[in-house]
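Troubleshooting entry. Yesterday's outputs looked truncated, so today I'm pasting the complete records for two proteins to confirm everything comes through intact. If either block looks cut off, that's the bug. Protein one:
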Amino acid sequence: MTIVNIGFILESPELGSMYGYRGRLGLIVPSSNTTNESEFWRWIPNGVSVHTARMQLEDVNEAQLVEMAADVETCISMLKTADVDAIAFGCTTGSLVKGKGYDEQIQATIETEAGVPAVATSTAIRRAFDILDARSLAIATPYTESMNEREKEFLEENGYRITEIVGLDIEPNTEIGQQTPSTAYRLAADVNSTAADAVFISCTNFRTFEIIPQLEADLGKPVVTSNSATLWASLNLLDVSAEEVNLGTLFERSLL
């Protein structure tokens, strides 16, 4: 007969409590995003859970990103049934495609409909740059030239100076998700210059978490990625210290 140590289970917060006993994060992502959830789950602090809803998207271009927004309210309604404590809109270009203020508009819609605090990736990166006092940015992306130009315009409208922005010219989102962290590392290292206060690696479907600490050490400056900023901002919404996560300089700067 197998004897189960019930006492151990009851005394262990991880084993004796529901998933998300410290906070449940709702995450809205494009349907073709294969990276954001995996990075969050591997690095999120114990006791925080992630619950995802998806918006239809195949290619990262302006037309599809605008159409994708039609799914936001359905995603909100589904996440409400999971009783989440905060919601992150996990898409960079999808939260800036209509220019300055669009990210805040998305956040306001989520907060009004869901009744919980929210953050969009484009807002999260701006908060990250501001707390790091990064006014000039070198940007690496997987995007096409037209999407790079859209992102550059958005950030300049919000007061940042772009020293250079370089992309991989990829439009199918599943192909972006197939890129390796080493690809992101090389692209970021190449775009960096002494004129940049920080390096930003854009796209929530671009795998980056494994390389952030080493890239910061090699470049001697902060490195922010779409997913690192979104996770950092989300933890702040949940009142969970970002210092529990080892993803570089940003996570030493909690807003709590």
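Protein two, checking that the full record survives here as well:
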Amino acid sequence: MNNVLNPGLPPFVLGNLAPGFAELRSNNLGVRLAISADEVDAVQALRYQVFYNEMGARPDTATLLSARDSDEFDAIADHLLVVDHDLGAGPESVVGTYRLVRQSAAAKLGRFYSAGEYDISRLEDFPGQVLELGRSCTAQTYRSRAVMQLLWRGIAAYVFHYGIELMFGCASLHGTDPDALAGELSYLYANHLAPEAIRPRALEHRYVAMNRCDVSLLDARQIMTMLPPLVKGYLRLGGFVGDGAVIDHQFNTTDIAVIVQTDLVTEKYYRHYERSR
């Protein structure tokens, strides 16, 4: 494992995502942490638009009336933003987001979000700093490779700053019929199952088997095109999946646990930064 707190790292990774520091820029787009309640509100509005209006999640009365996707984890999380400066300088500029929950933040609630779907005790016992990723989305016209790369640059800087060694979270496949997703689930289980020492397992009462068909009959390239961009991004970074899927009827998704060792993330984006200096 690389030392992610190497004091020789370039200055940009040592705090410029925190309030009061400059953001990372790419032309009109930037990535930084939310620094106001209005920006967190904009994040929640964007998540509502994507998850409920576009993806078919089912709102309860409070969610419907507020037109916001929110829960108790928002108050203790850091919210990574992609902002478009052509849209303005305030909350109206928010076009992408990722929710980041460190161990010290999760301790305030006594749990991580993923614990509602998976037994993550092995991750909680990991002898290093861990980070939970979740609630990732971008506005419809910003779903591009460039925006996703900018989000990953922000995550890499955050990982450097806090010395994170392992990231995890729940990623989603659209729909709630695991048989319709048999190819994707079986491919992930056969080819990307996490090592036992860091492998989450779906809670028994929510466990859905992933090994659902003969993987020798699958076209790996075709399966990769069918996977959501976020899941493909995790796999390109050497990510793993946990054992068992979970059906989330509220969000109209089939969830999988994903795990990424951060040395792969930080190496990639440190090299990118060095080339661009």
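Both blocks look complete. Sanity check on protein two: Confidence is low (pLDDT under 50) at residues 1-16, 272-277.
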